[in-house]
Amino acid sequence: MKKHIILSLLLGTVTLGNAQNYWKNNTKKTAKVVLTHAAKGDKLADKGTVQFLKLDQPKETDACVFVDPDFKYQKLIGFGGAITDAAAETLYKMPKAKQQEILNAYYGKEGLGYTVVRTNMNSCDFSSDSYTYVNDGDVSLKSFSVAHDEKFKIPMIKAAQERIGKDFTFYFSPWSPPSWMKSNKNMLRGGRLENQYYQPWAEYYVKFIKEYEKRGIPVWGLTIQNEPMATQTWESCIYTAEEEGAFLKNNLGPTLWKNGYKDKKVIIWDHNRDLIYQRATTTLQDPETAKYAHGIGYHWYEIWNNKNQLFDNLGETQRAFPNMFLAFTEGCKEKFDMKQIYDVSLGELYGKNMLNDFNQGTALWTDWNVLLDETGGPNHVGNFCFAPIIADTKTGEVHYTYEYYYIAQASKYIRKNASRIGNSSNRADIVSTSFMNENGELVTVIMNDSEKDIDVNLWIEGQAAKLAAPAHSIQTVIL
Question: Which domains are present in the chain?
Fold first, then answer.
């Protein structure tokens, strides 16, 4: 046990004592199983219960998922998705009954259990046009107004907030400052924030927070810049790690604190896993910069360029900065095709990334657009993508993709403030993670994205339940 305690301190975990205590306090020894299996048409299907029986030593020939409640890791901040202009515009093009259905599917009592909302400050690619909240050249920001957002975005955010209640967690990200603040004089195609506008841009964030909070939307946090290393055809702005650190240290951080916003969670990076370690170790190396930061955000889009999704980079970053939370702030399947919306591969993309990211320390999980239309938009630069729910604004039909169901296998059962616990699989084809909710409920999610059915033992301190993990399936075991 001494070795366990030392390891726990090194990895930022908490040792709770002997896992036998979990079984001592859990007399039922049975667990509920919920399964999504495309080949059989199962979507969050109730598969009854399984019983745990004594199994001291599994064989090497047995496929197993090992769970150890002795070890607690990060606490879950929450699951959610982005309410962009595109999502909100699409929602309000639908019949009112369908609007309620979609909102309840995410935020209602029987929905995904989403508590987190991200939105864009100024326009992004998933806006119908480019816009800002100030007049051109208004350095004083006297013209600042979020009237643009009051038509679609703010009503949808408020509708989500009403359903979520006290656990509502809202944060925002800018894609670009106004064009006149930038080196290329364009909100699109990269460029950098001009030095003389560092302070007005910092004050812009404060204005945004004040205006949203005036409307009853409490701001939990913000990211400094969406994808600061990507020169996109849409709204984008480039920061090196040193530039991001300088802006945070000298402008954004002090300005937030001066205005009474010391509690707002500032997230750096907000880009892919490939550079996350370099960015974190460079931006946060100065304690006077790091004191203003709370989390390190990332996306998953390096997957298009790497067979290995670089999950280990997250773990290395978490070990380097155990007091910072890791936040998945965006991800989606690009290149929309309406013919593919029922492909199980969409769900497996989400399942593989979610489960591996949680096992590397991720505490906040935020999908990209919660809703898009039959074109994968609207989008003012032609960057059409998938979303978990696709709303056909021409027919009024609502389509639930396997992204929705694979997310649900985790988000419906793992609650805010749940602690990830020890979990290990002895088969490469089986990906799994485990969390313990605050009420002691133990939730394990198991995915098999291979072509073969696999029988799996869910093993917990000398006892195991036998599970069937069909090919291309995901299941949740609630104990």
Answer: 18-74+420-478 (2.60.40.1180), 78-413 (3.20.20.80)
